[in-house]
Structures are given as C-alpha cells and as structure tokens.
C-alpha cells in the first residue's frame, strides 16, 4: 500500500476533497493504486493543516474500505486479517495513518 500512502498524501497536499464513494483500488504494474470514480462531488480547495488529521483518517478509512470490499465474501469471512481491517482500532490502520502523516510532512517540507 506504499503507493496508496503517497497518493493520499498528495491528495491532501493538493487540496483535493473527495467522498467515500469515490475511492477504489486498482493494481498496475505490480502495485496497488487509488482509482477514483463518480467525481461529481469532488472539489479542489486548500486544506488547512489543522484539518489534515481528519482527512488522513477519512482517506485511509475509505482506502481500507475499498480493499475490504474488493475481496469476495469467502475471503472476507475466512481471512482473519482481512476481516480485522473492518475494525478501525487495528494496528494496520494506525500504521497506515502514520505513514500518510509522515509522507504529507515530507511533501510539505520540500
């Protein structure tokens, strides 16, 4: 998901505001990337730094939701790791959010 981390950080840095229904994932050249659809509600307007944590939380939650919704029912039910991603209090979510925060900080300082 390292490419997704970079893509979420760039979205926030560039003031791209999306909703949860816009988020999907796609594989390209061996890496997972964000894929967007139904962009009628998208806006572009600077996001103030105080709002970064909220956008990080939502964008990572929606990306994880796209991952969970992208597997078939049997995989979801029988794979404890995938199943656990529905719980926002898991270690992956925390690490994912922190990685986006770090990447966003790098973007803002360059």
The 3D shape can be described as globular
Derived from helix and strand composition plus strand pairing, the structural class reads: alpha+beta
Q: Enumerate the strands of the largest sheet in spatial order, edge to edge or round the barrel.
A: 1-4
Element-level helix/strand string: HEEEEHHHH
**Sheet with the most strands?**
2 strands, antiparallel
Count every helix, treating DSSP H or I runs of 4 or more residues as helices: 5
Q: Please report the distance between the alpha carbons of the first and last residues.
A: 22 Å
As a percent range, the share of strand residues is 5-15%
Task: Explain the overall architecture.
The protein is of the alpha+beta class and 110 residues long. The protein has helices at 2-13, 52-69, 73-78, 80-84, 91-109; strands at 16-17, 23-28, 31-36, 43-44. The strands form two sheets. Strands 1-4 form a two-stranded antiparallel sheet. α1 (2-13) crosses α5. The longest helix has 19 residues, at 91-109. The chain is globular, with a radius of gyration of 14 Å. The two termini are 22 Å apart.
């Amino acid at each position: 998901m390292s490419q997704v981390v970079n893509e979420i950080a760039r979205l926030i840095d560039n003031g791209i505001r999306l909703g949860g229904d816009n988020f999907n994932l796609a594989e390209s050249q061996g890496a997972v990337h964000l894929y967007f659809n139904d962009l009628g509600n998208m806006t572009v307007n600077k996001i103030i730094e105080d709002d970064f944590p909220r956008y990080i939380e939502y964008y990572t939650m929606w990306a994880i939701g796209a991952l969970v919704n992208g597997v078939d029912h049997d995989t979801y039910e029988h794979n404890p790791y995938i199943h656990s991603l529905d719980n926002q209090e898991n270690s992956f979510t925390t690490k994912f959010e922190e990685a986006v925060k770090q990447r966003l900080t790098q973007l803002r300082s360059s």
